[in-house]
Amino acid sequence: MNFMTYDIYAKKNLAEFSLGAEVPIIAGSMGAGGYQTFGAATEVDWKPTEVWDSYSN
Amino acid sequence: MTDVGTVQVGRVPLHWGLGLVWNSGDNLFDRYMSTGDAVRWNAKFGAVFLHPQRDYQFQWNTIGGSMHGNGWNLYSGTRTGNVIDYSLILKYENPEDDIEAGINVVKRLGGEQSKIQILVFLLLRRPPPSLARVG
To answer: Which residue of A6, A14, A24 is in closest CB contact with B20?
Structure first.
């Protein structure tokens, strides 16, 4: 196993929304063969109100 | 602690971005988490964060089973499930614009590969006569 991962990521907050994206790109070798792959993911978070935290002492 | 950042040594959670490759498992429904025995330097230069790191993920010491298999090579009788990661995180963060972006470059060596790397390095320093004639 010998490979490189280039994992690119960005996130932007817009008012109540949060937009995120990640793209990992992998290249190298796994065992006797070559290994190349990539992935992509996006995420949208919506936070309409402030989170309520509760504490007990 | 240094003037140019913080040095972390020990077993640490690994996380980057949305968590596709490294996920520390902090959320409620996360099943696995990435952990490693790491030496890490956390530095910040203005809006740019720099995190060079070397971590060793030992097969039986990862929490939550994020490393699969039993770690033993049945043919050679040696441990092959451990991996070494050399990583460099470069992240830009701007709180005013609420934006962050970056890249995590990871070189992963696993199993016998890490031993081969060391062997190749030693051979290149002083090649024996038999190897010098090849090619």
So the answer is: A24
Residues of A whose CB is below 8 A from B16 = 7, 9
* Contact assignment for A1 to B113 by CB distance below 8 Å: yes
What is the pairing mode between strands A17-30 and A33-38? antiparallel
**Alpha-helical segments (H) within B1-135:** 112-125, 129-132
**Residue B10, phi-psi category: left (phi > 0), alpha (psi -120 to 50), beta (remainder):** left
Q: What is the ipTM of this complex?
A: 0.84
Q: Which of B99, B106, B107 sits opposite A7 (nearest CB)?
A: B106
Q: What is the pTM of this model?
A: 0.73
pLDDT by residue for chain B (135 residues), tens digit each? 567 889 999 988 889 999 998 898 888 888 878 888 899 999 999 899 999 999 887 655 554 444 444 444 444 444 556 788 899 999 999 999 999 999 999 998 876 555 555 555 555 655 555 655 555
